[in-house]
Amino acid sequence: MQLGRAAGGHYLVAVKGNQKKLRRQLRCLPWLQIPLLDHTRTTGHGRREVRRLKVCTVEAGLLFPHAVQAVEIKRRRVNAKTGKVQTKTVYAVTRLTPGQADPARLAELVQSHWPVEALHHVRDTTFAEDASQIRTGSTPRAMATLRNLAIGLMRQAGWTNIAAAADYYRSRPDYATALREITC
């Protein structure tokens, strides 16, 4: 963390449920008094989604080092087939100042991080990455790289359901080795 700051690095971190105290702090910010600063609508993946973003400047004392701004994103998703509505509030913190990242830029940064989260979700649900006992040295990074390679090869082979692809190749190792032959 210190090295990143010294080098002028910035961050935008989504605050998850496992960060209970920080999440509670963010939830208690005066969001009701803050005007809506960004509003986007998207359609895709069988759903319609509306995202509303508010940004709050924070002072020292927030349980995240050097945070300057807090972000609240309210997402409302409607399943196009079933009509089922899901709402979720997401919080994030950043070291970026309002001059460095306006609300539209913060919304863009948060949304561009979602594919990374999706990849981590696939790695954990398909390969049980979070349950792995491999925790020391460079081995965890090497295993993540191998999992990413496997996911990439399966996607390149046309699979959209990586869990189904892993099950398929697990029982057919000779087919799995044929994936090495796939080229761009």
Structure description:
With 184 residues, the chain is α+β, with helices and mostly antiparallel strands. It is 39% helix and 23% strand. It is built from six helices and five strands. The chain has helices spanning 2-6, 20-27, 103-127, 139-156, 162-170, 173-178; strands spanning 12-15, 38-44, 47-57, 69-79, 85-94. Strands 1-5-4-3-2 form a five-stranded antiparallel beta sheet, sandwiched between helices. Strand 2 (38-44) and strand 3 (47-57) form a beta hairpin. The longest helix is centred in the middle third of the chain and has 25 residues, at 103-127.
Describe how the helices and strands are arranged:
Blueprint: H1 2-6, E1 12-15, H2 20-27, E2 38-44, E3 47-57, E4 69-79, E5 85-94, H3 103-127, H4 139-156, H5 162-170, H6 173-178
Antiparallel strand pairs: 1-5, 2-3, 3-4, 4-5
Keyword list:
184 residues; alpha+beta; 5 strands
Question: How is this structure best summarized?
Answer:
The chain has 184 residues and is α+β, with helices and mostly antiparallel strands.
